[in-house]
Design a protein that fits this description.
The complex is a heterodimer of chains A (334) and B (322). Chain A is 74% helix and 4% strand. With 334 residues, chain A is mainly alpha-helical. In chain A, the strands form 2 sheets. A two-stranded antiparallel sheet of chain A has the order 1-4. In chain A, helix 2 packs parallel to helix 13 (268-287), helix 5 (88-111) runs antiparallel to helix 6 (117-136) and helix 7 (146-153) packs across helix 11 (209-235). The longest helix of chain A has 32 residues, at 292-323. Chain B is mostly helical. Chain B has one domain (24-42, 49-321): ABC transporter involved in vitamin B12 uptake, BtuC (Orthogonal Bundle), CATH 1.10.3470. Helices cover 75% and strands 0% of the residues of chain B. Chain B is built from 13 helices and no strands. Chain B has helices spanning 2-22, 26-42, 49-74, 82-98, 103-126, 132-151, 171-189, 191-201, 203-208, 213-239, 250-260, 272-291, 298-321. The mean pLDDT of chain B is 89. Classes of the chains: A mainly alpha (334), B mainly alpha (322).
Chain lengths: 334, 322
């Protein structure tokens, strides 16, 4: 029990409960299942992208191109299916592969050419967003087949206890599970933590750091591709600036969820709670009539507070350990 | 005797060429030279004074912010909030000018606001130990929201005509030259400036040798805020107004200019001169797209490519030397 309280994700979960309670008291529409499902649907794309970004950040890297790759993938669905008349499902697969390609390029540039992650993904951020605009000359595309649009609104179920849940939320949940399993239950996942805590030590103990990093960036790219497809389906159109600002929101969610930008620490459960905090915060502020721009301000303050709280926690822990030295269990701190 | 003199002269000149070849900024400079020459011969409009002045102004805005960013990146930090600082200080200045304040008073206030924002970043980073990328990501959002609330998202203008000279003619490029020279001297010739390189090279070693690391970082972030507000003066003057969404996304152009100029994002290595060349490359490329009537959206794609090429060329030189 105490170990649960001490875990990193407990802080963000408490934050989630507080924000939830405050809005539930302020607005009677907030806690209605319809509203909460809607929030979940809107934030499922961010959740999908954040799963990959968490892995990247655990390896000690960063990917600021996620928003642009979401935009590029969303536009590709429109260009391939709408303008070139390709089968919509093939277009979706192609868009996801394009996302994978962007991620793989990031990974290769970072590992093989040893460019710092922030510079490599800055270049990709610029190029992918530019390409999305070039492809459509800044226009939006729509006119998707009904079956595709319906999928964006579809729900599956009934799930016992919850009723029908939106398809996009189900996809996000599956990917979250997949991410958790990869990180916690596979040697590969342990390699991700190892590469982040000490690349040299990981290399010397036989972890294929190159493969681990390449996977983390490629997987993130693939998830961005999927996020773009999901967004196209939800909005029933392809917008070139889809996903702009995602990098800001996703990094905030990951950091709020307790991952350290220095690498080696973090987990997906925390990230998802971080995404949920962001979702209900924005939705709740909308419901009680707070203008969008104040929400940006709140998010900025919360980001800084989250890191401060974590600093404080680490400081207290190291002070305690100074007094009562405990040998930490070797292996993953997940 | 004559033989020895000749040989030593030859040796000296070969050393000179060596030094030139080792110059970090050389590839960027060559690239800039090539695109400028190509444009000069292909597009007669490129050489027109109006076009050159507009390009120089674009270069000055990114360059002045880039000089500050170079110092921040030299300490192995980063500042994502510069564009928001620019907008905030310009908005404060615009409101004061429209309220009838003296323009110099308003300019001083803008510079003060910029410096204060930079100092705020510095405090978050040094005192509260928040990683620079997170702290400035936060202040980027907070300050952008702040300026929108402060201006009610309204257009603040037109600014008084007496203020127009700042953003027109040769003033922007002169300001850039002044800022770049002053900061180069600061970095290379003053004691706190030398520490800037040192902190980025090995912070722990510098701390242990008794240098005030926090003080150095404070100076650098505060200066960066100040320079962002200087760039804000130029931009507000050339548009004759201030807006809440001014310079949105410019932080990335600025970082791109710094990286293209050969400064290492890992800190400790780089120069102000390189950044000025980087800013010139960005501005000339943008201008080239307009003159060649290529859709402007290509600018982002090309910028991405240039950043990557610049970093790779730098790596290549490093490998070769080894």
């Amino acid at each position: 029990m105490i170990s649960i309280l001490r875990s990193k994700e407990s802080a963000v979960f408490v934050l989630f409960l507080i924000v939830f309670a405050v809005f539930a008291a302020q607005s009677d529409r907030f806690a209605a299942p319809d509203n909460l499902f809607n929030v979940a649907r809107q934030y499922s794309e961010l959740a999908v992208v954040s799963v990959g970004l968490t892995m990247v950040i655990i390896t000690g890297g960063i990917d600021i191109s996620v928003g642009s790759v979401v935009g590029l993938s969303s536009i590709l669905v429109g260009v391939l299916a709408g303008r070139m008349g390709l089968n919509i499902w093939l277009a979706c697969v192609a868009a996801m592969l394009a996302g994978l390609a962007c991620g793989a390029i990031n990974g290769l540039v970072i590992t093989k050419l040893r460019v710092q992650p922030i510079v490599a993904t800055l270049a990709m951020m610029s190029a992918a967003r530019g390409l999305a605009f070039v492809l459509t000359e800044a226009r939006s595309l729509s006119g998707f087949p009904d079956s595709f649009v319906a999928l964006g609104q579809a729900a599956i179920g009934p799930v016992p206890g919850l009723g029908y849940i939106p398809l996009s939320v189900a996809i996000a949940l599956v990917l979250v599970m997949l991410g958790i399993v990869i990180l916690r239950r596979t040697a590969f996942g342990r390699g991700i933590y190892a590469a982040g805590s000490s690349e040299e030590a990981a290399r010397l103990s036989g972890v294929d750091v190159f493969r681990v990093k390449l996977f983390a960036y490629s997987f993130t790219g693939l998830l961005c591709g999927l996020g773009g497809v999901m967004m196209a389906a939800r909005l029933a159109s392809s917008v070139p600036d889809a996903g702009s600002g995602f990098e800001f929101e996703a990094i905030t969610a990951v950091v709020m969820g307790g991952s350290s930008l220095k690498g080696g620490e973090g987990n997906i459960v925390g990230t998802i709670i971080g995404v949920a905090v962001m979702g209900i915060l924005r939705n709740g502020l909308n419901l009680i009539g707070v203008p969008n721009i104040w929400q940006v301000l709140f998010l900025g303050v919360m980001l800084i507070l989250a890191v401060l709280a974590d600093n404080l926690r680490t400081m207290l822990r190291s002070r305690r350990e100074l007094r009562y030295p405990v040998r930490e269990e070797p292996g993953v701190r997940a | 005797m004559a033989d020895t003199a000749a040989r030593s002269a030859e040796l000296r000149s070969s050393q000179e060429t060596n030094r030139l070849a080792q110059l970090r900024e050389l590839p960027a400079l060559v690239f800039l030279g090539v695109i400028v020459c190509a444009l000069w011969f292909r597009e007669p409009n490129f050489g027109s004074s109006t076009n050159l002045l507009t390009t120089a102004r674009d270069m000055a805005v990114v360059g002045i912010m880039g000089v500050g960013m170079t110092m921040v990146i030299l300490t192995a930090g980063i500042d994502l909030s510069v564009a928001s600082v620019l907008a905030f200080s310009a908005a404060v200045m615009g409101k004061m000018m429209l309220g009838g304040a003296d323009i110099w008073l308003a300019v001083t206030a803008a510079l003060g606001v910029g410096t204060a924002c930079g100092a705020l970043n510095a405090l978050l980073i040094t005192r509260l130990r928040i990683p620079p990328i997170i702290a400035t990501l936060g202040t980027m959002g907070i300050l952008r929201a702040g300026v929108t609330l402060y201006t009610h998202a309204k257009w603040i203008g037109p600014l008084p005509q007496r203020f127009y000279f700042v953003g027109t003619g040769c003033t922007p490029i002169i300001l850039l030259a002044f800022v770049a020279t002053a900061c180069s001297i600061f970095l290379l010739r003053s004691r706190p400036g030398r520490y800037v390189h040192a902190v980025g090279g090995n912070e722990e070693a510098v701390r242990l040798s008794g240098v005030g690391v926090n003080r150095t970082k404070f100076i650098v972030y505060a200066l960066n805020g100040l320079l962002a507000s200087v760039a804000g003066l130029i931009m507000a003057s050339s548009m004759s107004s201030a807006q809440s969404n001014m310079a949105m996304g410019y932080e990335l152009n600025v970082i791109a200019a710094v990286v293209i100029g050969g400064t290492s994002i890992a800190g400790g290595q780089g120069s102000v001169l390189g950044t000025v060349i980087g800013a010139a490359i960005m501005a000339v490329l943008y201008n080239a797209l307009i003159l060649l009537e290529i859709p402007i959206y290509w600018h982002k794609v090309i910028t991405g490519g240039v950043i990557l090429t610049a970093v790779l060329v730098d790596k290549l030189r490093f490998f070769k030397r080894q």
